[in-house]
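Side project, low priority. Logging it here so it doesn't get lost.
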Amino acid sequence: MNKGRVYIVATPIGNLGDMTYRAVEILKSVPFVLAEDTRESKKLFNRYDIPTQLISYRDQNHGRMISKIIEKLDIGLNLALISDSGTPLISDPGFKLVKELRELGYIVESIPGPSALIAALSISGLPTDKFAFLGFLPKSDSRRKDILKEYLNLGCTVVVYESPKRVIDLLSIIGDCIKENTVVLAKDLTKLREEVLTGEAIDLISLLKGREFDTHPHGEFVVMISPFSQKV
């Protein structure tokens, strides 16, 4: 009997219309879909009339789920993995699963689509021939500063994800690292409140505080920083 395979399926980062035909077909064809948050994924499934059963899968329950996943694959069932939005594994659950399945010889196939990282870079106006993506930085200010300095010295655009509650603090740290380089903030991409802001860190802090953003934060950010000595 042929073993099943796992499809890593990208889903919209905001606008549900960004779902690909192939992604819908795959999600309808498999008997089970592993989802980061089944409640969020149900909204997408309702939009596209996807009847497939959703199963909660996160890095935290990987140890409990992996044997059940392998059991299904061994009887020839295909499965799909999705996250709340965008491409799974990109600062989302799935790394443990993909690593273990590939080591065991199972086929893992990508169904590509939206990614906040790539969407933001494509409209940033910053160099994209090479970039470093660091995901979410540690909470420690000193660690964040050390990491940013290290990667900015590589001479490439640096990209991080940040929560709305911490974005002003992050901009302050960036301002301590670089004084005149360009920073681009992208938030709520593909949504009604989509916005892309460009400027030096200190100017962006003033802009956000002028909107009282520090007391009413909303929307996750993609933060992109031009490398040292490269003001765009």
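Brief comment: The chain has two domains: 6-114, 117-225.
Revisit when time allows.
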